[in-house]
């Protein structure tokens, strides 16, 4: 038969055990809250890093676009200088007393017509080429949404076929999916002999017509051996 003293002892033990359970529960809740806060801080830091990465990519694209514009301006200036020089030489040339016409220079082959594209080049062609070959990587979408069926680079009339359909998940995430061109990435390796050359990045649309994405002049100066 239990005594009042035994009951008090058991009650005290139960209360102590209950307090221990409550304490462990409180510690567990504090730990869970701290882990939640830690995850939030890590996620916030990851978000900041992603924002900084996106800003750096945008700055790189803007710098590349500025360089392309500068190259265009230089090419236009050179074309004007060449035209004025030719006109000056014609004015200085002695007149033939027989009135013979100067020999006509054959017109160069007409370039592939251009078309509006949204594109970006990861390896910029606006550079001085030092090696014997160069690999152009980037992505391109025709504004009209037609399917790109082939990609190439034309260097002084010689064409180099490229690999098409490479994944560009960040592009799709940013611009949305273009149904006919779900993987707009490409890669083209060209030869770069010494000297100055015309350069045209071109895409075949719908399996038929070729259109130029961009054109420029490139300069190749191999490293001294």
Please provide a written account of the structure.
- This protein is an alpha+beta fold and 225 residues long.
- 43% of the residues lie in helices and 28% in strands.
- β8 and β9 form a beta hairpin.
For this entry, what is the oligomeric state of its chains? single chain
Distance, first to last CA? 107 Å
Quick one: CATH class of the largest domain? Mainly Beta
What are the low-pLDDT stretches, counting only 5+ consecutive residues below 50? none
What global shape is seen?
A: elongated
For this structure, the CATH topology of the largest domain is Immunoglobulin-like
Largest sheet: 5 strands, mixed
Strand order of the largest sheet: 2-9-8-4-5
The whole-number mean of residue pLDDT values reads 80
CATH architecture group name of the largest domain: Sandwich
The number of helices is 2
Order of helices and strands: HEEEEEEHEEE
CATH superfamily of the largest domain: Immunoglobulins
Helical fraction: 40-55%
Q: Helices and strands: which structural class?
A: alpha+beta
Give the beta-strand count. Answer: 9
């Amino acid at each position: 038969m239990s005594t009042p003293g035994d009951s008090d002892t058991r009650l005290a033990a139960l209360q102590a055990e209950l307090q221990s359970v409550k304490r462990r529960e409180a510690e567990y809740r504090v730990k869970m809250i701290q882990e939640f806060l830690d995850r939030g801080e890590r996620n916030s830091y990851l978000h900041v890093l992603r924002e900084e990465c996106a800003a750096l990519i945008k700055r790189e694209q803007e710098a590349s676009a500025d360089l392309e514009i500068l190259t265009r301006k230089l090419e236009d200036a050179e074309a004007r200088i060449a035209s004025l020089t030719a006109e000056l030489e014609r004015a200085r040339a002695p007149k033939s007393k027989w009135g013979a016409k100067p020999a006509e220079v054959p017109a160069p082959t007409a370039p592939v017509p251009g078309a509006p594209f949204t594109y970006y080049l990861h390896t910029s062609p606006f550079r001085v080429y030092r090696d014997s070959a160069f690999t152009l990587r980037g992505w391109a979408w025709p504004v009209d949404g037609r399917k790109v069926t082939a990609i190439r680079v034309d260097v002084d009339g010689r064409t180099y076929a490229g690999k098409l359909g490479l994944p560009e998940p960040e592009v799709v995430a940013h611009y949305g999916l273009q149904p006919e061109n779900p993987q707009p990435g490409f890669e083209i390796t060209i030869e770069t002999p010494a000297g100055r050359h015309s350069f045209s990045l071109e895409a075949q649309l719908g399996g038929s017509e070729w259109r130029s994405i961009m054109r420029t002049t490139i300069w190749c100066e191999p490293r001294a051996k």
